[in-house]
Design a protein that fits this description.
The chain has 677 residues and is an alpha+beta fold. The chain has four domains: 143 residues, Glutathione S-transferase Yfyf (Class Pi), Chain A, domain 2 (Up-down Bundle), CATH 1.20.1050.40; 64 residues, no CATH class; 159 residues, Neurolysin, domain 3 (Orthogonal Bundle); 244 residues, Neurolysin, domain 3 (Orthogonal Bundle). The protein has 27 helices and nine strands. A hairpin with a 2-residue loop joins strand 7 and strand 8.
């Protein structure tokens, strides 16, 4: 046990994890040891003879599981970014252990009695705003964790939590394994007609990597999206679209049983705790407050986006007919013809942008962008071990003062065992850790277009937007200035968490920002101003279609989490009914639900609406920067001080009001999208 690096205080600078010394056999004993350590801290708290107060009870609880949080974070981050069969097997053991410990604490009558004793005095205590929030969150966390339940219901709730801790990771593992199992192998170059050279090169490299001839397309988005968008071969577009559409529906990696189990367990948990359903339980702790307010929000957007989407589809059909496409448009035709329609209307292709977005200069430019906004300085370092050769590490400082702000990792390319999509995560949040307020250790994980032997990683503009988005989350964490880690950075109410990420995407359309990094990878020429104008002119192209898609997913999420599970037999039939008013095509493959990791394998259950909710906030926020200047110091400072640095230490509506001087204007989003009445 003494040789297990997870059981010692990390000896690397800033306490970064020793990834080069961690092997799979270390995780389970480390988790078990960390749980035992946390239990000892809890027992000391319970047996403290002094009357319960904020320090000896609330703060003691906050910090009791420091090591467990760190070790668990390392394990689950590796499970997402570098999974193996061994890690997946471990997840089935570690999940229930951690869930059982959390349930034991939440349902411990002696601990709750101390928490309640402090909570009952809250009006007479002299507490800061953050301390009041921590006290409120702690008390409500116990109540929502089952502290007030009778013993038999506590026992059942504990069982439910343990089962949920296994099913979510199993859902994600299926999506990774299904994606890894599909290959579209092309041996005749004629079948690649229409595909850009960058996509061909990537497909050729993928084939070579597997010792095959020809070209390989996969369901990784840097491979899938170019093919479905540009390939002239309609039959192959249909083939790869159907493979994506059948993701985890039936067969070896079927997620339908997991969905039914998840829905039933979450509904049962909500009812045990006194809520109508899971959405009721979740939304009590959100800005939206209730399922009714979410549905009102989504239905209002539906009323705007659906007519606009129908116009988009009719324009697409008309254009396709003019191009000689006599059959009905199918889903595998939409990206193909919409790209061609956009090229015709705006006189440029997305591929025209790619040569200007080589990853390394883009990353350097994005760092400069955050330096101009918030004074951050990203310094590359080789001092830290990483979990894969592709990963890069940086120390982050305040430019003016030299103050250390945190450690930042970037993991940018797809590989087997890595979850699809992009996300920001933390190995250690800013805040109290082992007795001291520590700076964060964070990472962003993406799946960008990989470099080949002949070209660097050349990003699409969508991938540039993704980088700005995830870096928005990262800077939220890096600029955190709170005392308690449970309030740090992105630990905010869930429908506020996407504001700092989504607002950053706005800068990726601005010439002043693009000029920081958009250089042709061969010639070094700056991206032409005319091309930037075309990008902005096309920004709202198919906006109704894309808005309807997001609303559709939000409505599907709410349908699942307000439903009566006993009435659900067929996952696909349930989805068809739930989305009948928000789709423009009949379902021609499997349901979206079986690969909807956000809500079934992540933290967005009854919360997917928050992307659109936060878009209202981000559109209103960016209007402040647009009016004052993209890098206006006063605006940036107010945003940093009132929003980013505060994390979840105060109510987000209050934080936003302080920054903006008012509530967000709900029309700001529709103004930006050109859909305001």
């Amino acid at each position: 046990m003494t040789q297990n690096p997870l059981l010692t205080d990390f000896d690397l600078p800033h306490g970064v994890p020793p990834f080069d010394r961690i092997v799979e056999d270390h995780y389970l004993p480390a988790i078990e040891s960390a749980i035992a350590e946390a239990k000892a801290h809890i027992e000391a708290l319970k047996s403290n003879p002094a009357p319960a107060d904020f320090s000896n009870t609330i703060v003691a609880l906050e910090t009791a599981s420091d090591r467990l949080g760190m070790v668990s974070g390392i394990f689950y981050n590796q499970l997402s970014a570098a999974s193996t069969d061994g890690l997946e097997a471990l997840a089935e053991k570690i999940g229930p252990l951690s869930a059982a410990f959390s349930s034991d604490v939440a349902m411990d009558e002696a601990i709750f009695a101390r928490v309640k004793a402090v909570y009952d005095q809250k009006d007479s205590l002299t507490l800061t705003a953050e301390e009041r929030t921590l006290l409120e969150d702690t008390y409500k966390g116990f109540v929502r964790g089952g502290a007030l339940l009778p013993p038999d219901q506590k026992a059942r709730l504990k069982q439910i939590n343990e089962q949920l801790s296994v099913i979510g990771p199993a859902f994600n593992n299926n999506t990774k394994k299904y994606a890894d199992s599909f290959l579209l192998h092309v041996t005749d170059e004629k079948d690649l007609a229409g595909l850009p050279e960058s996509a061909r090169a990537g497909a050729r490299q993928a084939a070579e990597d597997k010792g095959m001839d020809g070209w390989l397309m996969t369901l990784d988005y840097p491979s899938y999206l170019p093919f479905i968008t540009y390939a002239d071969h309609r039959g192959l577009r249909e083939k790869i679209w159907r493979a994506m559409g059948m993701k985890c529906y039936g067969g070896e990696f079927d997620n339908a049983p997991h969905i039914k189990n998840l829905i039933a367990l979450k509904d049962e948990r909500a009812k045990i705790l006194g809520y109508r359903h899971h959405a009721d339980f979740v939304l009590e702790r959100r800005m939206a407050k209730s399922p009714e307010s979410v549905m009102d929000f989504l239905n209002k957007l539906l009323g705007t986006y659906k007519p606009a989407a129908l116009k988009d589809l009719e324009a697409l059909k008309s254009f396709a007919r003019a191009q000689g496409h006599e059959e009905d448009i199918k889903p595998w035709d939409v990206a193909y013809y919409s790209e061609k329609l956009k090229e015709a209307e705006f006189q440029f292709s997305e591929e025209d942008l790619r040569p200007y977005f080589s990853l390394e200069p883009v990353l350097t430019g994005v760092f400069e962008h955050f330096s101009r906004l918030f004074g951050l300085n990203f310094v590359p370092t080789k001092a830290y071990p990483v979990w894969h050769a592709d990963v890069v590490a940086y120390d982050v400082f305040q430019k003016d003062t030299g103050r250390f702000m945190g450690v930042f990792y970037g993991d940018f390319f797809p590989r087997q065992g890595k979850k699809a999509g992009a996300w920001k995560t933390a190995y250690r949040a800013q805040g109290l850790f082992q007795g001291q307020v520590a700076r964060p250790i964070i990472a962003i994980v993406c799946n960008f277009t990989k470099p080949t032997k002949d070209t660097p990683s050349l990003l699409t503009h969508d991938e540039v937007l993704t980088l700005f988005h995830e870096m928005g989350h990262a800077t939220h964490a890096l600029l955190s200035d709170v005392t308690y880690a449970s309030h740090a950075g992105t630990s905010v109410l869930w429908d506020f968490v996407e504001l700092p990420s989504q607002v950053q995407e706005n800068w990726a359309y601005e010439k002043e920002t693009l000029d920081l990094f958009a250089r042709h990878y061969k010639t070094g020429d700056t991206i032409p101003a005319d091309l930037i104008k075309k990008v902005n002119a096309s920004k709202n192209f198919m906006r109704g279609w894309m808005g309807l898609r997001q609303v559709n997913l939000g409505l599907l999420d709410m349908a699942w989490h307000t439903a009566n599970p006993s009435e659900i037999d067929d996952v696909a039939a349930f989805e068809d009914n739930a989305t009948r008013h928000s789709t423009l095509f009949p379902r021609l493959a499997g349901p979206t639900s079986t690969s909807f990791s956000h809500i079934f394998g992540g933290g967005y259950s009854a919360g997917y609406y928050s992307y659109k909710w936060a878009e209202v906030l981000d559109a209103d926020t960016f209007e402040a920067f647009s009016q004052a200047g993209l890098y206006n110091p006063a605006t940036a400072k107010a945003y940093q001080t009132e929003v980013l640095s505060k994390g979840g230490s105060e109510d987000p509506a209050l934080l936003y009001r302080r920054f903006r001087g008012r509530d967000a204007d709900p029309e700001a989003l529709l103004r930006r999208e050109g859909l305001a009445a």
